[in-house]
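Quick illustration for those who missed Monday's session on complexes.
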Amino acid sequence: MADTTLMSIPGQVDPVPVARDITPREDGRVDLIGLPKKDIAALFEGAGLDARQAKLRSKQVFHWLYHRGVTDFEAMTDIAKTMRPWLAERFVIGRPEVVEAQHSTDGTRKWLLKTADGHEFEMVFIPDADRGTLCVSSQVGCTLNCRFCHTGTMRLVRNLTPGEIVGQVMLARDALGEWPKGKMDFAEEESEAEYTADGRLLTNIVMMGMGEPLYNFDNVKSALQLVMDGDGLALSKRRITLSTSGVVPAMERCGEEIGVNLAVSLHAVSKDIRDEIVPINKKYGIEELLQACADYPGASNARRITFEYVMLKDKNDSDEDARELVRLLKEYKLPAKVNLIPFNPWPGAVYECSSPERIKAFSNIVFEGGISAPVRTPRGRDIDAACGQLKTAAEKKSRAELDREAAMAAAAD
Ligand code: SAH
Ligand code: SF4
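Prediction with iron/sulfur cluster bound:
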């Protein structure tokens, strides 16, 4: 469990190696969230339990953590009363700290969160008629500098740990009140029916928050394994989508080792334009990227790859662009759907969103080419629920607060 330093990487395209898988706490206790069962067992053994006890206790604790969502060892009723303080002295059950929570009139919820060492990141929940999708962050900031993306302008970056990633899902379940209620004393005291997963609000996860998930591969993988673990959060891999800007060398591994659905931030169909708006394109070009998509393990007509395409006025939104998009997706025989995303402007952005008519015309051409191309309706506009925007609002506020303090100090003088 090595330490990490902050990374300041303007224009950086390569992944930044970060060894840390746990954020150290000042009180020296270890946060169990984010650790697989075997690591919890190893910690228990290291703290003095014999191997058999450690294994048994880790199984019980794991179930309480991920199946029941408890945050207090005292609630673990099948663990001996004397053992609970022993656990609490050495371990914690962490959650990211909530800096700010917002609720949009359309039901979208957005949280600005903070790691134990003080870094802010975001999470968004988007309810729909038939599903509820949690948009999860993988990094604080992003080392890539897509020109239309506000996260890409943030300087400080570090990878989130598995605990900080899966912790977002735990926190969302807390906020939505979705943990099973009642007691749990393995088998005897509770019927299965009391903790089935039916009727939950949080049904899908997209790795589309802040950061490039494939540049934090190991931690994202560990976190998603906990999300998919039948003894853990037990969400199907079919309900999880990972979005990448096109880190070609990690895509095959993603399909093989994580096995979730893939979304690719394509956003342009020519080298010039994609180089400009998604600079990782200079390293892994469109052809290479589409070939990696064609080879993506597990992709099929039943499990299509989503191509994200942000609509930027007079940049990538012409009829020719739409026709070229269809041609490319067909050339590589991709089981594809296209998500057209209206550009969400932010202060200082150099682009504008295409007009609704232009977006409609673009969508029609792709659709007529035989590829589904829904326009993603902007959600949570009243709370700025787009990548990187809540964080800025909070930063602005603290700046305003600083100014106010300075003014007050000056007045006192
Ligand atoms: N880094 C990954 C995942 C996070 S970004 C990636 O790039 O795919 C999630 C999606 O939001 C991407 O498709 C990204 O291009 C898009 N996005 C970022 N900023 C946006 C903005 N201001 N308006 C619309 N879409 C944006
Ligand atoms: Fe990073 Fe994705 Fe934003 Fe590009 S779009 S800067 S890869 S978060």
